[in-house]
TrEMBL record:
Homodimer. The modification N6-(pyridoxal phosphate)lysine is found at K219. This is Histidinol-phosphate aminotransferase. Its EC number is 2.6.1.9. It comes from Hyphobacterium vulgare. HAMAP family: HisC_aminotrans_2 (MF_01023). InterPro entries: Aminotransferase_I/II_large, HisP_aminotrans, HistidinolP_aminotransfase, PyrdxlP-dep_Trfase, PyrdxlP-dep_Trfase_major, PyrdxlP-dep_Trfase_small. It comes from the Bacteria. Keywords: Amino-acid biosynthesis, Aminotransferase, Histidine biosynthesis, Pyridoxal phosphate, Transferase.
Length: 362
């Protein structure tokens, strides 16, 4: 008889990443995982290659030099930063440290799937707050949180919708949450945002002892393969996370590449500029062929398809895949008639536009 896991574990559906292969196509274009189409900083690549000569050594268990580099660039305190194997690990650590079976966890309706996994892994009760127009609602989140939420997860900007809440709205959310509720603001796409009313919540995390902000090196820094993320919070929260994380949870090449990447402002600005141009292009062109696009401040667009037979999101996905263009179906997010498209290189984006133009005209 097999060993039985804790109740609820077998109810978890493992996270499925964006596809990378198109059957029968030798070199498909992968636009399913919101990766940086420009690659990574050349300086980060050099640091990674240099680190390959030290693979016999354990990494610094506290990633001190990386935390100091992040603090230097972002204007933060290094001892209020913790690094992880991607920001996903930090989210899991928060569940391990702050959730008990039966606790309430809240997120917006189309929030990142990992938040649900954090709750289920901890045996917590998960509540999804309705969105309006694929945008989180502060009022709905507060209603869902009630007076007993343990953690509220807010992706700002949100994946997979690309929408965001203003700084004023996030502060209203924080002010309305019950005492003792941890607000987790996931800013994985923050570096791409270029709108006047968006604000990082790093200053709020500095002021409060019940708020944490997470960031990642996987998106604008282009280091997805190295699995590297960080978080900023009150020292009391950082102390807790350091107690529950593994002693060497960030590997040496990731630390060295991360230090180079965070300091390469030129590459970050180049990536953001490319993204602004390509998201605008995709939005304009796809709307022009009759598709509904949710306005996005991330490095992707959310495309809504008709319910007409032959023109659905599933039909479009098959059509694109057959041509070696891989996008992200959103059935797991309860968006069955939408696809998420990463803003890739200009020529790849044109291929998608041309293919969808043909698809819609057929």
């Amino acid at each position: 008889m097999p060993v039985t896991p804790r109740p609820g574990i077998l109810d978890i559906r493992p996270y499925t990443p964006g596809a990378a292969d198109a059957p029968g196509v030798a070199n498909p274009v992968k636009l399913s995982s919101n990766e940086n189409p420009l690659g990574c900083s050349p300086k980060a690549k050099e640091a990674f290659e240099a680190a390959s000569k030290k693979l016999n050594l354990y990494p610094d268990g506290g990633a001190r030099k990386l935390r100091e580099a992040i603090a230097e660039v972002e204007g933060l305190e290094a001892d209020r930063i913790v690094c992880g194997c991607g920001s996903d690990e930090i989210l899991q650590l928060l569940g391990r440290a702050y959730l008990e079976p039966g606790d309430k966890v809240v997120q917006s309706e189309y929030g990142f799937l990992v938040y649900r996994l954090v709750a289920m892994t901890s045996g917590a009760h998960f509540v999804s707050a309705p969105e309006t127009g694929c945008r989180a609602s502060v009022d709905a989140l507060l209603e869902a949180a009630g007076d007993d939420a343990a953690i509220v997860f807010l992706a700002n900007p949100n994946n997979p919708t690309g929408t965001y809440l203003s700084g004023e709205e996030v502060r209203r959310l924080r002010a309305g949450l019950p005492e003792g509720c941890l607000l987790v603001v996931d800013e994985a796409y923050a570096e791409y945002v270029d709108v006047p009313d968006y604000e990082t919540m790093l200053p709020m995390a500095r002021e409060r002892d019940d708020t944490i902000v997470t960031r990642t090196f996987s998106k604008i820094h282009g280091l997805a393969a190295l699995r590297l993320g960080w978080a900023y919070a009150d020292r009391s929260i950082i102390d807790v996370l350091n107690r529950v994380r593994g002693p060497f949870n960030v590997n040496l090449p990731a630390i060295d590449a991360g230090i180079a990447a965070i300091r390469d402002i030129e590459f970050r600005e180049k990536s953001a500029a490319h993204n602004r141009e390509q998201v605008a292009y995709l939005t304009q062109q796809l709307r022009g062929i009759g598709l509904e696009i949710t306005p996005s401040v991330g490095n992707f667009v959310l495309i809504h398809f008709p319910e007409t037979t032959g023109k659905t999101a599933a039909d479009a996905d098959r059509f694109l895949t057959a041509r070696g263009l891989i996008v992200r179906p959103l059935v797991p997010y309860n968006l069955p008639n939408a696809l998420r498209l990463t803003a890739g290189r200009a020529d790849d984006n044109r291929k998608v536009v041309d293919a969808l133009t043909e698809f819609m005209a057929a």
